[in-house]
Design brief:
By secondary structure, this protein is mainly β. It has three domains: 1-63, no CATH class; 67-167, Immunoglobulin-like (Sandwich), CATH 2.60.40.4070; 170-260, Macroglobulin (MG2) domain (Immunoglobulin-like), CATH 2.60.40. Helix content is 0%, strand content 48%. The protein has strands at residues 38-44, 57-63, 67-72, 76-77, 89-95, 99-106, 112-122, 125-131, 144-153, 158-167, 170-174, 184-191, 200-204, 211-214, 216-217, 222-228, 236-245, 251-260. The strands form five sheets. Strands 4-10-9-6-7 form a five-stranded mixed β-sheet, with no helix packed on it. Strands 11-12-16-15 form a four-stranded antiparallel β-sheet, with no helix packed on it. The chain has a four-stranded antiparallel β-sheet with strand order 14-13-17-18, with no helix packed on it. A hairpin with a 4-residue loop joins β9 (144-153) and β10. It is flat.
């Protein structure tokens, strides 16, 4: 790795034969200190076991460490039920030096649904935003996955970082997202809010009458169950619906679908 003055700042030697190799640079020099923001060149030079050196290839690398720590205080929150439980997530980022920043919220399709900052000149330090799931006009956004996207520039160098979060009552994680009939599936459910009791999950499998299981609590917000898909069902789409009650007595549910074969 060479800096803009063609000074070597770090070197790797990798024995890879004819296999592809991946190297990761964390922005530090050989001395272990963080290199300054700027343009760098990574040069890859092949050498065979006899010591013959081949023609190297250069690629440009842009290092921008001034933007860091783009974060959301919650990976899932649920403002859509309009109670005071889990109705806000704190979005934040840090600048190591003054930069011009654009800060937006994008939906799962990548569309901008809210703009918090547009080409705003900001000093070094941490910026935060208490996001209540609403647009600047006060309209509640629909349930779904959103991304906080921060782009910072000094006029020459720019960087973009992002963090996703869910605005939903429950989030699902399956051991196999394309289950088969007769297959056992482990389901992990994360609740945005604390619940008054264990939630129940309903399974709607094609060709089978709906059935349900009571989830087992494994943490403050997490629940699990192992279900076996009915072998007598049909291929198509299976729906999983989790329903529970929060500590204020509010009913909430989330339904997701998966292909079943």
């Amino acid at each position: 790795m060479y800096d803009a003055s063609s000074v070597l700042i770090k070197k790797w030697t990798v024995e890879n034969g004819d296999a592809a190799e991946t190297l990761t640079w964390n922005g530090t020099t050989a001395a272990g200190v963080v290199a300054p923001d700027g343009l760098y060149t990574i040069r890859v030079v092949p050498q065979d076991v006899a010591g013959n050196v081949g023609v190297g290839l250069d690629r440009a690398v842009k290092l921008v460490a001034a933007l860091r720590s783009v974060a959301s205080s919650r990976s899932i929150f649920f403002p859509q039920d309009n109670d005071s439980l889990s109705n806000v997530t704190k979005l934040s980022f840090t600048l190591a030096r003054p930069m011009t920043v654009t800060w937006t919220i994008r939906n799962a399709a990548g569309q901008v649904v809210d703009t918090h900052l547009a080409d705003a000149a900001l000093p070094a330090g941490t910026q935060s935003w208490s996001f209540y799931g609403k647009t600047a006009a006060g309209t509640m956004l629909p349930r779904g996955r959103y991304t906080s996207v921060v782009t910072a520039t000094d006029g020459t160098l720019s960087a973009t970082q992002s963090v996703w979060f869910d605005s939903e009552a429950f989030r699902f994680a399956l051991s196999d997202s394309t289950p088969g009939r007769g297959q056992s599936i482990k389901v992990t459910v994360t609740s945005a809010e604390t619940l008054s009791a264990r939630p129940r999950m309903w399974i709607y499998q094609p060709g089978i009458a709906r059935w349900s299981v009571l989830l087992t609590k494994t943490g403050t917000y997490t629940y699990k169950a192992t279900i076996r898909m009915k072998s007598s069902g049909k291929a198509g789409t299976v729906a999983l619906k989790v329903k529970g009650y929060d500590t204020k007595g509010g009913s909430q549910s989330t339904t997701v679908t998966y292909k079943i074969h």
